[in-house]
């Protein structure tokens, strides 16, 4: 504060005052420069066309954000006490520190209710709440557990392979050595209940905790940045084998899938594209033999989606489709085999498969340039079969700067990808940024995933704002919520992080990203030309996409009305 005494001193010293015309002139120029830069932002046009009610809702949400910024994130402690009790929280704090509190904020309540369009980047096997999955394993008759070697040492518990499996034969006998004993015969199936109750130090409760720890990335794993990305991927990769061994049994998959679709719908998501690596482990109910191919799984998947759409909670749900994925770590022969299966499944389930991708750790796996001959072969083979299966490549999910994983971005663009999964390193590529804007490629950004997998320590240092400020089209996704520790399915956590963590992302910024998710949804198969035309036209088009964009718009307006009514006290523009 400038007191009279200060002012006197300042005038004596010849210090210019803010009201002085030339300082005012400077500030005007400064504002103009900021405004000029803001015109290049991803949401500039959207922002200009906000309805009065939407503009009011945006103001209110920003007010609430500012309040919570100051009130929630210090936990009401003075700095010294906060420091001592490890309670120092700042807005945009690391996900696991923020999670408990964020779910109790007003901002959460708002974001949760927001209509969120499409979920475009999500690996299906990483989306089922682990507690629920385990409950299913326990309540489904015939579930067993086995391992290639006895599980004995702490190291075994942490890293050794084991799997669940259905078997119609009961393998229980009282003198059977436990899986936890030296005498365990490798790969013998032990009934789940027997294995759980004989779990050393704690029986079933401890067993559940242990399995859970093998299906998830624990908060402390994500904090250990000094161990690096490869180390967390080693943990991450191991979770999938355990999860899939439970999930890929028909009654369990059906129950989990139904519940998950319900959770997505409640979160305001109306369309999903699941990335799936279809391994051959799937078993029909009561069957000891795994299916020889993916047909049965796809049939059940479609059946469950159809059933869901007929329920009350699923009545607004448009569709769920699959982006077929091959593991990028495989050999040429294995990838070609997976591509052939993709083409064959597409023929049998034309509405189900909407695209193709390669997954697994980019830093450690094969680069796109290495796979170019296979990808050309795939395109040719598709054409011969009268199909057009577009690419939706993961690219640039890396800390690399100029290495092979970073350069995957060049190939993704050159190979005609419709969207880029992650694009974490894109912000370092000015030329590619221009190209993807020109070619209208969307970036599927997964901020919490990037944080947990140690690419960034919090939303504050994520490259998302660097893309948004340059006008790159982005939509937000949750990637692997059950493994990463979201604890809830849906997009609310990732949206909340962006909204609370980044000053430049407000409700309009989020809404723009939702609109993008609809615009870049692969609702129906289209040639490249049709796709480009429809993405280009956006809401002004005449097709399905434009109709759904209009529907979202009207939902968004209703949502804004709710914000304005519910949180009227936060409107500071009265
Ligand atoms: O963020 C990701 N980037 C690349 N691959 C991933 C990511 N999340 C999961 N997977 C891969 O997808 C398969 C499961 O569907 C797993 O093999 C996993 O490694």
TrEMBL record:
Q: What is its main location?
A: secreted
What Gene3D superfamilies is this protein classified in?
Metal-dependent hydrolases
Metal-binding is among the record's keywords? yes
Say if the entry is tagged with keyword Metal-binding: yes
One protein family per Pfam = A_deaminase
Task: Domain (Adenosine deaminase): give its ranges.
Answer: 233-530
Q: Which InterPro entries match?
A: A_deaminase_dom (IPR001365), Ado/ade_deaminase (IPR006330), Metal_Hydrolase (IPR032466)
Q: Reaction catalysed by this chain?
A: adenosine + H2O + H(+) = inosine + NH4(+)
Q: Which keywords does this chain's UniProt record carry? A: Hydrolase, Metal-binding, Secreted, Signal
* Any one GO molecular function term: metal ion binding
Q: Which cofactor does it need?
A: Zn(2+)
The processes (GO biological process) annotated in the record are: adenosine catabolic process; inosine biosynthetic process
Q: What is this protein called?
A: adenosine deaminase
Which source organism does the UniProt entry give? Penicillium malachiteum
């Amino acid at each position: 504060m400038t007191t009279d005494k200060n002012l006197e001193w300042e005038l004596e010293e010849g210090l210019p005052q803010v009201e002085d015309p030339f300082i005012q002139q400077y500030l005007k120029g400064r504002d103009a420069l900021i405004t000029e830069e803001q015109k290049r932002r991803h949401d500039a046009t959207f922002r200009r066309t906000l309805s009065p009610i939407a503009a009011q809702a945006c103001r209110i949400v920003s007010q609430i954000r500012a309040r919570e910024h100051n009130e929630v994130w210090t936990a009401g402690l003075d700095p010294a006490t906060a420091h001592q009790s490890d309670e120092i929280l700042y807005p945009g704090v690391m996900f696991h520190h923020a999670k408990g509190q964020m779910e109790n904020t007003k901002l959460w309540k708002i974001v949760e209710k927001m209509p969120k369009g499409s979920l475009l980047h999500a690996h299906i096997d990483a989306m089922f709440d682990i507690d629920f999955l385990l409950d299913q394993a326990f309540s489904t008759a015939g579930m067993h557990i086995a391992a290639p070697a006895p599980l004995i040492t702490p190291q075994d518990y942490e890293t050794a392979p084991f799997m669940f499996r259905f078997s119609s034969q009961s393998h229980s006998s009282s003198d059977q050595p436990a899986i936890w004993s030296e005498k365990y015969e490798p790969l013998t199936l032990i009934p789940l209940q027997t294995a759980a109750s004989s779990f050393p130090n704690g029986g079933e409760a401890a067993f559940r905790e242990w399995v859970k720890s093998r299906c998830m990335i624990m908060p402390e794993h994500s904090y250990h940045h000094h161990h690096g990305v490869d180390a967390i991927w080693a943990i991450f990769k191991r979770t999938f084998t355990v999860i899939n061994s439970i999930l890929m049994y028909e009654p369990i998959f059906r129950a989990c899938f139904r519940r998950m679709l319900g959770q997505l719908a409640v979160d305001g998501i109306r369309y999903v594209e699941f990335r799936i690596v279809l391994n051959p482990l799937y078993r029909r109910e009561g069957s000891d033999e795994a299916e020889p191919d993916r047909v049965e799984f796809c049939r059940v998947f479609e059946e469950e989606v159809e059933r869901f759409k007929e329920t009350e909670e699923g009545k607004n749900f448009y569709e769920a489709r699959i982006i077929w994925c091959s593991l990028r770590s495989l050999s040429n022969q294995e990838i070609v085999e997976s591509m052939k299966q993709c083409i064959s499944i597409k023929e049998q389930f034309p509405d189900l498969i909407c695209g193709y991708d390669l997954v697994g750790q980019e830093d450690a796996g094969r680069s796109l340039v290495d796979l170019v001959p296979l990808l050309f072969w795939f395109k040719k083979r598709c054409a011969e079969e009268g199909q057009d299966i577009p690419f939706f490549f993961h690219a640039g999910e890396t800390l690399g700067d100029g290495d092979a994983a970073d350069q995957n971005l060049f190939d993704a663009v050159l190979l005609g990808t419709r969207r880029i999964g992650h694009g974490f390193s894109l912000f370092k590529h000015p030329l590619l940024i221009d190209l993807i804007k020109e070619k209208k490629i969307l970036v599927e950004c997964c901020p919490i995933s990037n944080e947990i997998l140690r690419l960034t320590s919090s939303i504050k240092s994520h490259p998302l704002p660097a893309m948004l400020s340059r006008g790159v089209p982005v939509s937000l996704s949750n990637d692997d919520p059950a493994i990463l520790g979201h604890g809830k399915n849906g997009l609310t956590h990732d949206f909340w992080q962006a909204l609370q963590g980044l000053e430049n992302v407000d409700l309009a910024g989020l809404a723009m990203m939702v609109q993008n998710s609809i615009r870049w949804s692969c609702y129906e198969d289209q040639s490249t030309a049709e796709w480009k035309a429809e993405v280009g036209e956006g809401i002004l088009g005449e097709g399905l996409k434009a109709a759904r964009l209009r529907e979202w718009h009207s939902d968004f307006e209703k949502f804004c009305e709710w914000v304005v009514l519910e949180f009227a006290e936060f409107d500071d523009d009265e």
